[in-house]
Amino acid sequence: GWKVKSPFKGVISKIYPNYAMQITNKEGLQILIDIQVDRKNPMPLDKILQCEVEEGQEVSSKTTLFIVYLEEQVISVSVYIP
């Protein structure tokens, strides 16, 4: 598997149940990291990937946000500026 790391220092401002999260830095820049998983497969999400952080947690570029166990089930990892 592989790890999805935070792109910068900030705070986890929101974690969504569909494996997306919002991070805000001290200047107020927000990004949304969204992991798209193949939902045609009936495998439970916790067997595919796991969230490693909590809302309100401070993170740096070394912080692991997600661990992906079955990378073949991940369609994409996208970063957006909302």
TrEMBL record:
| InterPro entries in UniProt | Dup_hybrid_motif, PTS_EIIA_1_perm
GO MF? transferase activity
Keyword Transferase included in the entry's annotation = yes
| GO BP terms in the entry | phosphoenolpyruvate-dependent sugar phosphotransferase system
Segments forming domain PTS EIIA type-1: 3-71
Please provide the record's keywords in A-Z order.
Sugar transport, Transferase, Transport
Top-rank taxon: Eukaryota
Q: Does the keyword Nucleotide-binding apply?
A: no
A Pfam family cross-referenced in the UniProt record is: PTS_EIIA_1
The name on file for this protein is 4220_t:CDS:1
